[in-house]
Amino acid sequence: MSSYTVRKAISKSLKKGQTPPQFIIADNSESEIDFMEDVEVVVGDHTLKRKIDSNFLDRVRNLKFIQQPVLSCENIDLQACAQRGIRVANVNEGTEASLAEYCIAVAISLLRNIFYSHMSLLEGNLSRKEVIEASSELKGKTWGILGINKDSIYLSRLVNSFGAKVLYHSNNKLEETEERRLRMKFKEFEQLLIESDVVSLHEDKSGIITDRLAIGENELKLMKPNSVLIATSKNVDEIALAKALLSSQIMGAAVDVFTSQEEFASNPLFLAAKEGAPVILTPHIAFDSADSKLRRFSLAFANVIRFISGEKPQNLVV
Question: Which listed residue, 95, 111, 224, 267, has the most CB atoms within 10 A of its CB?
Fold first, then answer.
């Protein structure tokens, strides 16, 4: 992240009269840790690639607070932080619009066969009949949301505005009054898969999707043959999904998070896409945009300022 963006985010987070804190932007080398010995606050890596583990914590001995600028803390050893008395907070908002717009965009692209139409046209096929007969609208469909957080609740509002019905399943069931207000209906996991035309997978409020909510071979068999799956969090069996797509077991999928980014060339979904499977693959961008990044870092730095001002930070996970 550039120093300009950091300064802009800090300026947005400051209240009138507050002095901005001094900051250092650390690169990915080991050498910068040498001048971080006196650092008391660290803002984590929003890409989740940079690990904050025991080795890092042992070298940054005066560290008191870690502010993660996203919801997930999977790159941070929370147990090691707790043992050292280091507080950790995340940011559980700021990504709502970006993630919801991504889900809507890929869902409509898959339902309307837009990507297939584009590729077909480039190959000189001007036939409309095949595309039209295989495409459908989001209006009147049923959208199933697995995992409830601020992003997926925001998504439900957009889905409702398209005239679709919203079902959800979560480890954190909403109050009935909240369900009515949001026009969301709770369903058991398997029943949601059976009834939904679109299924989107999200992190729960805890930042965790349990194995019970994973999408594997058995779960894919429950889904409608003309349904689409959108994975913006982990716990999708990539081999099973690749097979389901290649055999037309479901209509299509969009996947934004993968088991391994380093071995992507051998990922079964990547290989299936090269064979023509109806899948949209993106490099973990669903929640991210220039706008959402600025919002998240502004919230993160506001929390840092709370900490250094002696106030209790928000969204503490440790």
Answer: 95
Say whether both 104 and 90 belong to one domain: no
Span 264-293, pLDDT tens digits: 888 999 999 999 899 999 998 998 888 988
In 3D space, the residue among 248, 207, 237, 229 whose CA is nearest the CA of residue 75 turns out to be: 207
pLDDT at 128 over 90: no
The H or E element that residue 272 is part of is helix 268-274
Is the model's pLDDT at 80 over the cut of 80?
A: yes
Please check whether residue 92 is in contact with residue 149, taking contact to mean a CB–CB distance below 8 angstroms.
yes
pLDDT-derived band of residue 190, with 50, 70 and 90 as boundaries? very high
Domain region containing 181 = 96-281
Q: DSSP labels for 143-198?
A: EEEES-SHHHHHHHHHHHHTT-EEEEE-SSPPPHHHHHHHTEEE--HHHHHHH-SE
User: Minimal CA–CA distance to 317: which of 95, 41, 147, 81?
Assistant: 81
Helices and strands of the chain, counted as H and E runs: 13, 10
Residue 20 pLDDT more than 60?
no
Would you call 64 exposed, middle or buried from its count of C-beta atoms within 10 A (0-12, 13-18, 19+)? middle
Residue with the two structure tokens 């947005």:
12
**Looking at the structure, do residues 172 and 238 belong to the same domain, yes or no?**
yes
Q: Give the CATH number for residue 67.
A: 3.40.50.720
> What's the token pair of residue 49?
């690639």
The model's pTM:
0.80
Distance CA 89, CA 213 (A): 25
272, 240 in Cβ contact below 8 A? no
